[in-house]
Amino acid sequence: MVPSIPESKLNTHIYGEACEWLVALRTGAMGAVSRECFDAWLRKSPEHLRAYLEVSSLWEDVALHDPLRSVSAEAHISRAKAQHNLVSFAAPQTRDAPRGFEQPPALRARTRKTRAFALAASVIAALLAVGFEIDTHRGMYTTGIGEQRSLTLADGSVIELDAESRIRVNYQTNTREVELLSGEALFKVVHNPPRPFVVKSGAVIIRDLGTVFDVYRKPRGTTVTVIEGQVAVRPATVALPNPNIPQRPGGTSIGPSATAPGGEHSSQSGQGADIGVPASGNEAGHEELLLSAGEQVTVLPNVMLPPIHVDVAAVAAWSDHKLVFESAPLRQVVRSFNRYNARPIVIEDPALENFRVIGVFSSTDPGSLLRFLSAQPGISVIENEKEVRVTREDEKKAPLQ
Amino acid sequence: MTVEERDALVTGLAASHGERLRRFLATRLRAASRDVPDLIQEVYLRLLRVNRPESIRNPEAYLFTIANHVLHQYALRQSASPEAAELLESIPATDGTDPSSEAEMQQRMEELDRALSQLSYKAQAALILYRRDGFSLEEVAEKLGVSLAMVKKYLVKAILHCRLNLPPEA
After folding, report:
1. How many A-B residue pairs are in contact by the CB < 8 A criterion?
2. Which of the residue ranges A102-111, A232-241, A299-308 would you say has the lowest mean pLDDT?
3. What residues contact A190, with CB distance under 8 A and at least 6 apart?
């Protein structure tokens, strides 16, 4: 295919520097001075930037290599000691080829079709963005701040993964299981009754009945919204335990939002879904609840709240990089934005937390929200390089920067 | 369309731009590709447009965010062609396979294994212990009987060696 760049053209020096930066960045915290140097280094030339992207990709690959642990680091250490601690950059030519690098034949025997599919899969998803962590051996998919991913699974089902989210895909011959470990995902499932599609999120299990549905795992509970078709929802406590999916107890983490568990979803505000009042809910631990298109249910660790009707377009709007708020409290709006943007928005005055926001914003452009807020009487927006502070006008005397 | 034709088309499509994209995305940029310099240039120019005080706070995060956006737009442009869309709809479902390109991944891993095996045992051990097995820098230093600084040197050496010695893309 395409010829590679001749070795002589590679700028070894730049790669060397890139590796130095990489290791420095990955093995410890970096001081302000170093960060500034690194920033300046990256800005030197496109080649510097390219070299850094390349070596950081390699760094990720190394973590994935040899998942069977067939190469023993201890064996290397003892060999090294046998060499009288002689450290040579190039390995001795005479030594045996490391046995452990052999792959099991089953892994090696790939049909052409599988390979073609694998290639095609790489086209499909517009795949593997830099920083999109992919671990095929464990079926784990993670997105960072501001990053959204579309995964097409082997059966044609599609998972849209929102920013700061993490899922584990476990496809077996007779089951399709996905665990939502954090964040939010939209599932477009190809229905296949003999091979049920099940999503697990904290304390809740969702069984697909031919649908498109959204699952949002929050610090204390999970909100399930059906866009099309139907799903069956049941608390995980009545599920058959599956040893392949380690149970992470939902709702036990007490995050900063623990005092405000209600209405965290961008779409459900103004719908009367005050999940902070569990008394109105059903006891969890009973039968499955059938949820139809347009319905949403929130499941807390011990309580399944009654389903409510929601605007499904608003729920799924994030997959178009839109955030839709219909009279949502500011704390919820801010939390949503902070999932997409590296510089966090901080509400300084607690009185502003329940300030109601109505509007459609671009998830990747907090500027639209900040302009909206600045225009509100009594609200002041202060930006510095670390964060954006939202405070009340009369506190403007607070020192800037 | 027969299965063979479809496979050929899939492979052809992947070769024409999908693979190039994937390669870039995996930032294995050593394969010469016409688009890569443009994409890199775009990332670079956008980085220069970011205010330095902002990017200094976390230069790496900025770099990746920008690269992500550029790649996303590139992917959108690439997937806009009708035959790509049609093809993607007709891709056969395979059972029990992960969505990502396992075969390619495997090939990359084999190449990586080869490159790693040319390193000194200590450099290999350092990289494996730190990256694959998740030991801390201190633990790796103790196991190898060397200083923290030395472990870092091994890591730098190992990654640089891999980068310079991976074979050209097939």
Report:
1. 341
2. A102-111
3. A155, A156, A157, B93
Coil vs helix vs strand at A187: strand
Asked whether residue B116 carries a pLDDT value surpassing 90, the answer given is: no
Cβ contact A222:A213 at 8 Å: no
Residues B141-159, mean pLDDT to the nearest whole number: 93
Q: pLDDT-based confidence at B123, cuts 50/70/90?
A: very high
The burial of A75, by beta-carbon neighbours within 10 Å (0-12 exposed, 13-18 middle, 19 or more buried), is given as middle
Which of A13, A50, A175 best tests the B interface by mutation, with the highest count of B CBs <10 A? A50
**Three-state DSSP class for A358?**
strand
What ipTM was reported for this prediction? 0.72
Preferred mutation among A130, A142, A338 to probe B, highest tally of B CBs within 10 A: A130
CB-CB under 8 Å, B41 with A123 = no
Residue A136 · residue A118 · CB < 8 Å: no
Q: Is A125 on the interface with B (CB under 8 A)?
A: yes
CB-CB contact of A100 with A66 (8 Å): yes
Q: Do A116 and B170 count as a contact with CB atoms less than 8 A apart? A: no
Interface of A with B in 138-177 (CB under 8 A): 139, 144-147, 151-156, 169, 171-173
In chain A, which residues have their Cβ closer than 8 Å to the Cβ of B26? Answer: 57, 61, 128
Which residue's structure tokens are 């347009």?
A294
From A125-134, A208-217, B95-104, the region with the lowest mean pLDDT: A125-134
Cβ distance B104 to A119 less than 8 Å, yes or no, reads yes
At B165 the pLDDT is: 83
Helix (H, G, I), strand (E, B) or coil at B30: coil
Q: What is the mean pLDDT of chain A?
A: 69
Inspect the interface and report whether the beta carbons of A155 and B93 lie closer than 8 Å.
yes
Lowest-pLDDT range, A20-29, A232-241, B55-64?
Answer: A232-241
Verify whether the Cβ–Cβ distance A116 to B7 is below 8 Å: yes
- Pick A363 or A92 by higher pLDDT: A363
State the Cα–Cα distance between residues B67 and B90, nearest whole angstrom.
Answer: 30
Chain B: give the shortest CA distance to residue A241, in Å.
Answer: 21
Which of B26, B59, B132 faces A42 most closely, judged by CB atoms? B59
Report the percent of chain A where pLDDT is more than 90: 7
- pLDDT, mean of residues A109-122: 40
CA atoms within 13 A on the CB side of A240: 5
Tokens linked to B110? 């084999």
pTM of the model: 0.40
